Each structure stands twice: as structure tokens, then as C-alpha cells.
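Archive record:
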Amino acid sequence: MSQNHNQTSLSPVALVNLPDAWVVIDVRKPAARLASGSAIPGSVWRHPFNAVNWADEFRGGRVVVYCVHGHEVSQAVRGFLADMGIEAMIVEGGFEAWRAADLPVAPVESADV
């Protein structure tokens, strides 16, 4: 799947159909991540306020970021990553939309944040 360079988001169902070349990054704040107890399977967690410290590990790749509702947190991180030259999109509606679509989730342990 090639990204339309004007596209900045995709639906949870579209995310399921993305090739494995995309890295899914959970950018929910630690308290929100722990409170939910689950995450999108295969996603990696990165603190949203430390993107300047971890963005380089995704340089040259494609990422999809998500927060709780797909608003300020994921949009800010996506914008920062895009400014760094990283192809980035957000999950429309965030993790809550993923859950509402009844898609699979993976457990989150406290050691994961």
C-alpha cells in the first residue's frame, strides 16, 4: 500500500491491512496506557513527550501512531515525526476506535511503560 502524501490518518480496519513495513507506535501517556490494560498487538510504546529522543530510530521507515482518541497527542507526535522526515500517520479515533471495531488487543504490563 502506498501512502497518499496528503493523507495523515487511516482507520483501524485499514491499519490491520497495512504491510508489515509499517511500525505501529503507541504514544498514549503512561497512565492512559496502564489504565486501558491493553494495546494494539505488535505495537511499540514510546513516551509522547520524548519524541525528540526516540524519533531517529524510525528514520527512513514508515510509522503509524496512536493515542487514546486520535486527537492532540498522536497528531502532535505525527507532525513532529513528519517534520523529521519520517513518513507518519495516525489511527483515526485512536485506541478507542480500535477497540470499538472489536479488533484484537494485547495485554500491557506495568513494566512496558
